[in-house]
Amino acid sequence: MGTTSHRPRFLRLLLAPSTLRKLFALIIIGSIIEAQFVYYQIARAERAFASQISLQTPTPRVYIAGLHWNNEGILRASWNSALVALVEELGPDNVFVSIYESGSWDDTKGALRDLDRRLNKAGVARQITLDETTHADLMGAPPPTDGGGQTQGWVQTREGERRLRRIPYLAGLRNLSLQPLLDMAENGTTFDHVLFLGDVVFTVADVIALLNTNNGRYAAACSLDFSKPPSYYDTFALRDSNGHEHASQMWPYFRSSKSRKAMLNGEAVPVASCWNGIVSMPASAFTGARGLQFRGVDDSLAESHLEGSECCLIHADNPASRTRGVYLNPIVRVGYNLAAYQAVHSHGSWLSAYQIWTGLLKNRLARWFTTPGLKEARVSRRVGRWEQEQKGREEPGRFCLINEMQVLVANGWAHL
To answer: Recorded GO terms, molecular function (predicted)?
Structure first.
């Protein structure tokens, strides 16, 4: 009886304008204090960056893989020179460069021929493939079959059209870029790391810091990528430690407390998946009888209007992801243009105290008032139905999947 009689009075006091103003003021003051503390935490991590840019002893052997399509601008502006500088730092004898270019209509091929000459002069072992096949060529060719009459890498749309899927195509190119690694492994030539270099602005220091992520213990280590700062870019592949998409594209990005705490401290961030511009993985993950291969989801599952990045699925397929961990390294920030790179490499902390304060506030509100649960439930239902349709079906990368259908078009790719 007493509890019931006091409840309305308690609610009136709690909801009184004066009480709400005080609570709001406390939240604001607390957020400002927290933002200042985090600002110094991140600045301290930035100052410690120098300790991460010394090469391990002995110098690691690195297999460098890259895909290029219509990237002449960034190749000539920075990428070629950064790669040559990286090779010189690692030592030509410790490096193999594998680049696959596919059907560009700008002068990407010319830029890569220039790179080939520079690498040859430096004495670097390499394979640079310049493929004349365009998207239009592939789209106009008969769909390949698996020998039983089933097409591979194609999807039937709701309108009844057969369309070439984007993700299996990209997965195939990534596997082609790794073929020299497999060939050399059979002949006894091994490497410590595979370094996947995206079409981004990067420096030698960035790469060395990435290789040293978590003291070199990881199943994969990724940079953090930007096209239009302060929003990060690769939302398709990045999932937090609980397998969720971001809470916000603005720092500190994550929903899970484990991922978010590491980001607030400027430490290597445990995640379920990442790619984000540059990635290092142990070379042994791709070699041997159980070596990993990039893939897309099954075509029949894709017809349920689901898609997942090959760069996320590779982590779902990798047993070492659970034992050694996948990490996003916030110290290593790359850009898809020079302006983006420079914007996230200011002196001191790369984030201002104001950006930290607003980021914390937006992240907190996103976690309080939004949920990925509805999206994830929709995906789970579709995968569940697909698995039940045929015995033995399984998709281990559910956390990678989103409600999209992606196909190639002549000038790139499109959503359906």
So the answer is: glycosyltransferase activity
